[in-house]
């Protein structure tokens, strides 16, 4: 019949293969000359991993795994498992991973997600937890970021020890006083706030 069943691309005035110049604007907004794709594709890799300072808010998995806490970052999956793992932006560990209590975990989560420190919750922590929490604040450089600085747990421990020890010296042998003094004396000794001789002297009096 003299009719092509399928017109050729040349007959239709269409190039079979678009030129490079014709493809130049495909895949990015009009007027854009930069690379295409999500914003985080343009982040410079430092070493073999992304620097954590560069990926906050990008949607990368690591941006959810690590949350900023002051000048450092805390690994959330570890925190959820009652483990403290604080790292630099390079992901190098600030210190060893440490097991923490439920109470301390709650305080750290409140700090990370709400930028809040509860004085009441802090007061309820054990002496060791208070010390560790203060260490976290110091390591992340946020110990002075709050209006009211947390009291030194060692100072409170010394004052309570002196008060209870005074009660004992005055002859107060109330079972509640004895029990509290035993606990605080052990804490004082464990934190090297009293020597061997004083520790033994108090414990002998309490037996």
What is the topological layout?
Blueprint (H helix, E strand, L loop, with lengths): L19 H4 L28 H4 L5 H5 E4 L2 E4 H5 L2 E2 L1 E2 L10 E2 L2 H13 L4 H6 L2 H13 L13 H17 L5 H16 L5 H11 L1
Antiparallel strand pairs: 1-2, 2-4, 3-5
Helix pairs in contact: 8-9, 9-10
Notes on the structure:
This protein has ten helices and five strands. With 207 residues, the chain is mainly α. The chain has a three-stranded antiparallel sheet. It has a two-stranded antiparallel sheet with strand order 3-5. The longest helix is centred in the last third of the chain and has 17 residues, at 153-169. The relative contact order is 0.06. Mean pLDDT is 75; it is low at 1-48.
Oligomer: single chain
Looking at the structure, what is the overall shape?
elongated
Helicity, as a percent range? 40-55%
Radius of gyration: 32 Å
Q: Structural class of the secondary elements?
A: mainly alpha
Features:
single chain, 207 residues, mainly alpha, two-stranded antiparallel ribbon, 10 helices, 7% strand, disordered N terminus
Quick structural overview:
The protein has 207 residues and is mainly alpha-helical.
